[in-house]
Amino acid sequence: MHASARWSVRYGEELRFAGTDLPAPRKVRVPTRHGSVPVHVYTDPAWDAAEPRGVYVHFHGGAWLMRYPEMDDFWCRYLVATAGVIVLNVDFTTGPYATYPVAQEQCHDVAAWVTEHGAGLGAELGAGVDGARLVVGGFSSGGGLAASVCLQARDSGRFRPRLQVLGVPALDLATDVSSTSGMISPSLRGLVRRVYFPDVASRREAYASPVLAADLSGLPPAVVLTAENDSLRPDGDRYVERLREVGIHVLHDMTPGADHYFLSADLVRARATMAMTADAVRQAVTGP
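Given the sequence above, the corresponding structure tokens read:
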């Protein structure tokens, strides 16, 4: 899966609505407790380097089994162009080369690092970086990672994201997928569990399955994007409900008639969904 991804993954090619003229991302290495991690940094060279920009830290999908951050290149470029943020696309370690909680902790550490070292990163990039104005997000397993990062950030106290963007997120690795049809099948869930979450007990931990966390208070506002026919829709729906129960503001958008690749289902609607999400990101990083 790792070796073939660049030829087999085509999701997102039809979603390049903005940012196609931006240069290739610059690759930097960020230290984490599990070694340094490559990070693809997207920015716009036309920006005034003296103006600090907010940061969006992105975690790609791939079921914790496919290490291919380029699959979300379309989204990273879109956010730079429309939300005006610097985007860090994290190339975290996946199975079978690591098991839980390696990716979760690497993603937390990258977000914490940019919060604490944004000025240094900006000097390296020749751009203004305000790591304190931080949003985290991801699609699918990456959405689960973003939710996990927010819980870890709350518990560690090192930083607090201003917003979490969770696209068709995988938030419960302890419960079986009920649907036998669709893109996320019971067999795929079984493979993910065996390879990346082999310890059965750990699947119920909050950082593995955020929707099962005992306490969701103190988390940042959320944008949760779900799809009507997605097997992971119950994860997102329950998370929205639980966040709202503790008073956290949630913008919840469900794409009707769509499966897990929800943005590809209707490109007209996808434009509206992406624009809505980019506007939420832009608003989150605006101001001190």
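The chain has one domain: 5-285. Try to locate this feature in the token string yourself.
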